Amino acid sequence: MRRLCAEGDVPDGQGRGFAFGSGMEREAVFVIRWKSKLLGYRNSCPHIGTPLDWPENRFFDIDGEFLMCGGHGAVFRPEDGYCFEGPCSGRSLARIEIKVEGGDIFWNDDKSSLRATVLAVKRFDGCVRRRAMSVCPAALR
Ligand code: FES
User: Fold this and answer.
1) Omega into 87 within 30° of 0, i.e. cis?
2) Which of 24, 67, 70, 95 has the highest local Cβ count within 10 Å?
């Protein structure tokens, strides 16, 4: 568990971003409070992987109704991170597990669960490659 901030630091209809580490080890997440509920996502737009907040800590659109990427304007539902408008329409933000304890917000950044996800993606990728090789003559050369 990693402490992000005090619960009171994220007012309703606003968000706050956090970054840890640097280079390939850098991890960025953000927390929003939407309709009194706290939700957390990785701060990486499904379009090209850049942070959503531009300017810093601005995650909601001007009406405070939807999440919006400052890069190219993709619009996401706050409740599940689903993009319904913009260049990554149909894709979603990656949810993170957060919990409130003693008035503070914590991110469950358990590396073992992240590692399991990476392994599952690699297995899937290998399956796709094997399938592509069986139908692509160029891959057989
Ligand atoms: S980087 Fe988010 S919409 Fe392009």
Assistant:
1) no
2) 67
Is 74 touching ligand 1 by the criterion CB < 6 Å? yes
* Cβ of residue 87 lying under 6 Å from some atom of ligand 1: yes
Residues 6+ apart with CB under 8 A from 40: 29, 30, 31, 32, 95, 96, 97, 98, 107
Q: How far is the CA of 48 from the centre of ligand 1 (A)?
A: 6
Q: Which of 44, 48, 85, 93 to mutate to test the pocket of ligand 1 (most atoms within 8 A of CB)?
A: 48
User: What predicted TM-score, i.e. pTM, was given to this entire model?
Assistant: 0.79
Digit-coded pLDDT (tens) for 84-129 = 999 999 999 999 999 999 999 999 998 644 544 444 444 444 443 4
**Ligand 1, atom 1: closest residue by C-alpha:** 71
Q: Is the CB of 51 under 6 A from ligand 1?
A: no
